[in-house]
Amino acid sequence: MNSQSASNVGYNRFLLFVAGLGGLLYGVDVGIIAGALPYLDATSGLNPGQLSIIVAAVLLGSVVSTLFAGMLSDLLGRKPMMIISGVLFVASIPMIALAHGFLPIVLGRLLQGVSAGLVGVVVPLYLAECLGASNRGKGTGIFQWLLTLGIVIAALIALGFSFWIDTIEKVGDSNLLFVAKDVAWRWIFWISILPGIVYVAGALMIAESPRWLFKRGKVDAARAALLRSGTPEDADLEIAEMKKIAAEEASKVTSTGERIKESLLARKYVIPFVLACVILACNQATGINSIIGYNATILIQAGLNDKQAHLGYVILTLVNFLMTMGGVALVDKKGRKFLLSLGTAGIIASLIAVGFLFNRTESKQVECKQTAQAKVADYQDVKVAVASASVKLVKTPEITLSVAGKDVTKATASGSTVELEFAKPLATGQLVLSEAGKGEKVEYSYVGDEATKLSFGIEDNLVTGAAVRDGRLVVNLGYKASTTTWSLKYPFLSTAQDSRRSEYQVDGARIVADRKFIVPFDKDTQRALLGASGFAETATMNVIYTAGDFTAAANVVRSDADGAKVKISRNDSLPSNKVDAFFKNPFADLEMSKNADLRIDNALITPVPSSANGWLIAVCIFIFIAFFAVGPGVCVWLALSELMPTRIRSNGMSIALLINQAVSTTIAAIFLPTVGKYGYGTMFFAFAACTVIYFITAAFFLPETKGKTLEEIEEHFEGKKRA
After folding, report:
1. Beta pairing partners, 517
2. Average pLDDT in the 63-75 region?
3. Which residues contact residue 688 at a Cβ distance below 8 angstroms, ignoring those fewer than 6 apart?
4. Contact call for residues 457 and 468 (beta carbons, < 8 A)
């Protein structure tokens, strides 16, 4: 090996490393919020609508940047756009990690989405234009491989913090636990900044795309860029082919000498564009995002318990990561057409198997929505604003006391107490403690009916006492400060606290009407809901409900789980503003929905199969992800970048990715209602049917692009044969 070829090898490895870091950032963008969200939810004081916007902000940013990524990469160049995508990701981290409010977190997540959209278009485009035909498949495959690694790393970071949180939870100090969770979600984001910094540094050191340089008339610079990744012979060949295509374009002139621009409806543009769009759409229609996103719920419904289901998710991510490695190794040896055909065939078989296994169980399920609807009741949520607390790290802007019925007529707050006035004067009121000594509920009764005890539940041990004064219920709010010097015992924490009981300083209270369905789903409730048609074995309850124009689903719960509840709230299920409402349902009337009844669309009780059945379904899903990883997972980015002709490549990739995201969003919108009405079996059969179209496209219409230059692929679609 001469020094030139050794230099080529070193540069190609460096290029793959930098581009792979782009995939890693994309994966981190997708996966990081899942681990941070529980801790953000517990400490930020944001409502469910705001949290849903934070999650969806990445998708919004990605859609916007994908739309303009192709145009910007044509205007500014591939390398500058790679640098910009990395800088945006790096800039988003401190914006999120240092945030103390909703707006900066949303803006940071939007920046992450913009970064992900740019990476998804520009990096595969850059790799396709820079790597030789023999390495192009491996290069784009490594992008996908490190994308899956990014998701795994995000999950592992969150898992590490979950163990740390678990050790602090055992201390039994609620304030220390609160601060630890606040620190956890911030550091989950801080740690993810490292690959972003390395990616930006690497992007500054790589060459610009030779094809972009050639289009700009910089032939010498294009040849120099090709020499960094290939031999002089390869560089001369590709420059010659670029000149040939440019000459053909230049020769198309009118009799007056004006250049004729070939119609974008020509065969050479339409066929590859349509193929790429079909492949990108079908890639999402396999159900990949929903199967990953709802994996734990699917496995619980299949027969696994909560811990087994989450173990199944970890196995799923590892199978995805490892099989992507196999796809990277095979893509330049076996070819794109072979891997896509093999992968889609395996996906069809595994999806059909999962569908039949679910149908076997779901044929026994019982619909009890009328019985469930009867249990929907009015609630009054007393929202208590917290002005300040003696420990400044604790940020709980609003505390909710949820009282069943419509009897609360007035709520006032002062000092650290909340006074509730009922329609009738109260006789008794007290805080009931659990066996662990924590506040469990507030119990009260009316004058003249002291024997009937009413109550409302307490969460997070925030109520320290309750009593009746002048017929009104007075509730005291507070928390117990820490006795631990955190800096000596726990990493990331460096504040010491004295031992004392601290009271919240409240600033006003308001009553918000709500409709809720709260059922403790145990064996007795199971039998009560099912009535005469009930079955004795353990069951799951899956509730799909509608609040006005918005449909959602409760968490699936099992009747053998301790303290399991099916809990639905109209207010919590509604978007918090019109922007969020538009993305959930662009035709919805948000104001009407705020006062609409809470309607149970489906309340399906299904017997839980054996854990053996659950693991059988899990194995079929692992097979699904294995075939997806080795076929579509690796080849979809290649299909996107290789099929598009030079003239439309950047903008065509943007449009195809938008179609991909539109299909993904549509499936996410219909997944829960379809599962609630027809069951998981029907949904998996639908995914299999869509994948049949994918298989036919790959096996019969997609040309093999292995070992061909981009210009040779373009000539194939033009109908030319090389001499």
Report:
1. 568
2. 82
3. 347, 348, 351, 352, 355
4. no
